[in-house]
Each structure stands twice: as C-alpha cells, then as structure tokens.
Amino acid sequence: MNKKKTIVYILPRSPWPPYAGQARLAYYRAKELKKKGYTLILISFCNRSSINQINLENLYKVFKEVHFIEIKKITFLKISVRALISRIKNEIPLKASWLNSPEVLENFKKELSRINSKYKNIFYHAYSIRSFYLWKIINKEKKSFAIDLVDSMTLNLKRKCNIFNNLKRGFWKFELNAIEKFEKNLPEFDFCENYLVVSSFDKKYLKFQSPNPKTSIKTSSIGFLIEEEIKTEFVKEDKRIIFFGSLSYEPNLSAIFWLYKKVLPIVWSLDTDIRLYIAGSNPPKKLKKITEKDKNIFLISNPVCMSKCIQESLVSVAPLISGSGQQFKIIEAMANKVPVITTSKAAIPFGFINKKDLIIEDDPDNFAKEIVNLCNNQKLIEKLRMNAFKTIKDKFSWEVIIKKLINEIYK
Predict the structure, then answer these.
(1) Would you say residue 1 lies in a domain?
(2) How far apart are CA 303 and CA 279, in angstroms?
(3) Distance (Å, rounded) from C-alpha 405 to C-alpha 395?
(4) With contact defined as beta carbons under 8 Å apart, do 267 and 289 qualify?
(5) How far apart (Å, rounded) are the C-alpha atoms in residues 180 and 405?
(6) Containing domain of residue 136, as a range?
(7) Model pLDDT for residues 58-102, shown as the tens digit of each residue
(8) Residue 390 has pLDDT above 80, yes or no
(9) Cα–Cα separations (whole angstroms), residue 138 to 89, 135, 149, 155
C-alpha cells in the first residue's frame, strides 16, 4: 500500500476561525483528512497581528506545520496599486492580484522549497482565485496540485450587479468583465491535475482555452460534522424563525433586507406570533437599526454557540438573492434538525428536492405563506426535519465528502 500523501493547503487567509465559506471548507476537509491518517501542512497569508494563541492552538490540532507569510499594511497598499494596473493593462481580475508582491512571492518560494526538501509524497492544494500568482510557482515544484476556486465568481458578481445601484454596480461590472474572461480561459499547468468547485451549477461557468484540456474540472461539495457538532436537543421556542450567518457578508444582508421589506409584512398580516431572530457575527449599523425598530425582530450578535441558536428555532429561513456556491447555513440548519425554507438559487447547487428535503420558494408572497404554514404545521415540520437530516447524513457528512475527494483528487 502506498504511503499516504502529505497535503499542503495554501490559503490567502487563515482557515481558523472557520466562519467564511473558503476557510470553513479548508479547515474541515483538513480535519477529516487528518483522522484518516494524512499529514497536513498549512501555508497562509495574513497580518500576523490577527493570529492569536487560540487561533494557533486550533490550527495545530489539524495541521502538522503552520506557516504564515505576512502581508503588512504597506505591502497591501502596494498590491492594491499593482492590482489596478494589472486590471487595466492585462485584464487580470482585481481579486486575482491579492498576492502580487515580489516580497510575498519570494517568501512563498522559500516555504515551498523547504517543504519539498523535507517531504516526499506531496500534493499541493491552492484555494481561491486570490492565490492566482502562486500557481506558476507551485507548478515549478513539479508536484501534483489542485486549484480550488470554491465557486464561480462570474455567477457571484452577476448577482451583485443585479442588486447594487450606481457606483457599486459600476465597480462590480468592471470586475465582472475580467472575471468572466478569466473563467472562460482558465490557465493550464503541467502539474495541475484538477480545478475544483463546490457544485455542478458553478462548474458550468468554467472553461479552458484548449479544446482538449489536460486538466479536469471536478466538484467537491461542502459538508458538515454531524456527530461532533450536534450534541444537544434544545427546547424550541414557539414560532421562532431564524436567519443566521456572517452579518457583514453582503449576500446575507441582501437576504435579510429582502425578508424585512417583502416577506415579513405579509407574514405578520397572517400571524402576529411569528418572530424573526437574526444570529451572526459583526452586524452593521443598518441591521441593528431595524432590529431596534421592530419588536418582532431580535438580533443575536456574535453568538457563542450557533447550534444552540438554530436548535431553539422552529424554522430556518435562507433566501439567496445574491452570492454563489453552496450555502453552509442550509446544511447546518438541516443537520441541526430544523426545517428550511429557501430560494431555488440556494437549493439548486445541492440538488435538494422541494417539499421533501426543504421548501423552495422564490416569490415573496408565497415565501411568506410557506413560513406561516410551516410554523403552524407540526406534522410537516417533523417530516422535513427527518428527511433533511437523513439527506445530510447520507450525502453531506464530511466523511462522505472526503472519501470522494481522496478517490478523485488525492489518489
């Protein structure tokens, strides 16, 4: 039997705390791979002052080695200038220029050279379009690697352009033109075996220049640690619905304000006992204002235990108006045995079945009616809870996800 590979995760940010999609995806993949006997090494780019002892302790529980390549404030300013020049001159997306610094790239080369001399059976896994300037350097090490785009930025930005007005829309359209061209002409490298995204919905936006590319595009879904994270059944509060997630993330804010303006007035005209709880990190002032103004909306800022917040709720609402990829909040609610009402944009990337795994509705009037109906239908709640939990356990546990990743990518 071949010795298991040493897998080097390369991220443009620290994977701990694992709140945002990319960080969470990388951290829990690595955690499951360690359980299966793989050696994990992390190279991450960040401001060192943002990494505290708790961060390090949690990272070392998963990674054998942790290496931070520092990006100082002055370096970030220089990168920003280079990014704008590259965008105008070469049509390279701004997001792809995140690490375009001679000093940063030189430090990265040294780390790769050291790792390559120390370990033999290595596989490099680079995350995000933000790692673009690292790809050629990784290829020169002559070791197999994968590029994980996570989701399609084309899809993400198209939705942003539909939401924003004026200057913001102009900026995102400016970036979209470059992103779309980039994703239709993905670069190939001699040692890059695969590009990865989380769903076939995102995959369809990616193409190579070559009609017969050497590199394949594969999907690897997000997952959830069911047994580890679901420990206690909390008492559910009557007619409490919840929206949860990072509250500084624009797609989440778009969803909340869609609920507030178009859905909740209809809900409360039908049932005044239904209350919305919004739980998440870093809520902005404009969100705090509506929760202070309306007695039926409650804000839980930076909750210590999100699972407790979810399990105390009767229903989870997760309308996706912008953004792309697969939404962690949906499988997290389902894994916590809380039924979900969502939009087709959020459900399609998972392949969930309407009325079986969750409820899918795009029209705000009907979305409101589904909330009221579900909050008053215990039989339907139990049906969705059980079906959803089984689907997550069978298809979206990290054990299932990593088994597929090992067979297709780390083989």
Answers:
(1) no
(2) 7
(3) 13
(4) no
(5) 27
(6) 6-223+398-408
(7) 999 999 999 999 998 899 999 999 999 999 999 999 999 999 999
(8) yes
(9) 25, 5, 16, 27
